[in-house]
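Per reviewer request, we include the raw input and output of the structure prediction for the construct analysed in the revised manuscript.
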Amino acid sequence: MPASELARERYVSLATFRRNGAEVRTPVWFAAREDRLWIVTGGDSGKVKRVRHTARVRVAASDARGGVHGVWHDGTARIMHEPREIADAQALLRAKYGWQARLLNFVSRLSGRIHRRVWLEVTLR
């Protein structure tokens, strides 16, 4: 499964698509299990707007700056709404990134951004 190949990576480059078909790549933290990835981002970010328009995405292993060093995998993304699913995704991200994820959550709570977060579920083909 592609997600299991990506699971040991620290970042993936998430490619979303504009209305005109242009690809926009963003390095993101993620959690993986089976054929799925979970990603958290700001609710007003461009990637969320693009996913709302088209669920088509691609992902590849990358570094923190987005330098791709892996094979691209096609997939579909959806915005998660179910609290239980979101809690599971949060637990996976915390397990993977440890204190860094906890620090991100703390800062997000202080700034009030935690309530504007959006969780994306990417299913790989």
